[in-house]
Amino acid sequence: MKDVVFVTGNADKAARFSQHMGMDIAHEAAELDEIQTLNPAELVSHKARQAYEQISKPVLVEDVTFVYEALGELPGPFVKFFVDADNGPEKMCRMLDGFENRRAEGRCTFGYFDGRELKTFSGIVRGNIAEHPRGMGGYGFDRIFEVDGSNGRTAAELADDEYDKYYTTIKPFADVRDFLESL
Q: Domain ranges in the chain?
């Protein structure tokens, strides 16, 4: 396997990534522009190429998007701004008031770039937006996302083993690991 750097400023995210890879993966922070697009592949491609330019080593980047069916591709990659806003999770639930359709998709795309080859890996989980945030676990939108097959519970309400299954579905760790092992 070639040396690869997971580009993130979040040490906890990097540790969890290495844990799911089953190997130590170096990580570095980088200031990356987030282009304004609703296309996850285009966003990840841009981030990976920009990270490679800064680090000069093969890189892995990640981007998470969250899509409400009733709103097309929104909030998409801008979800972090909604989650981090004052009372953000409650406001995200209120965004669908007046709509019958509360379906949503959480998507994660990893991108690898070594200066020549760009490879992307995507995972997706479907569910519904809760009427109000519930649960204390998880990250980001997990308090408002009732994952399909969870009997109406949000991802933040799942037991540890259930959450791990959800987390490894939305984040395609196995595909990334297989690819890295093939290098």
A: 5-182
How would you class 96 by CB atoms within 10 Å of its CB: exposed for 0-12, middle for 13-18, buried for 19 or more? buried
Is pTM beyond 0.90? Reply is yes
Per-residue pLDDT tens, the chain, 183 aa: give them: 568 999 998 898 999 999 999 989 999 999 998 899 999 999 999 999 999 999 999 999 999 999 999 999 999 999 999 999 999 999 999 999 999 999 999 999 999 999 999 999 999 999 999 999 999 998 899 999 999 999 999 999 999 999 999 999 999 999 999 999 998
Let me know if domain 5-182 sits in CATH 1.10.10.10. no
- Contact present, 89 and 144 (Cβ < 8 Å): yes
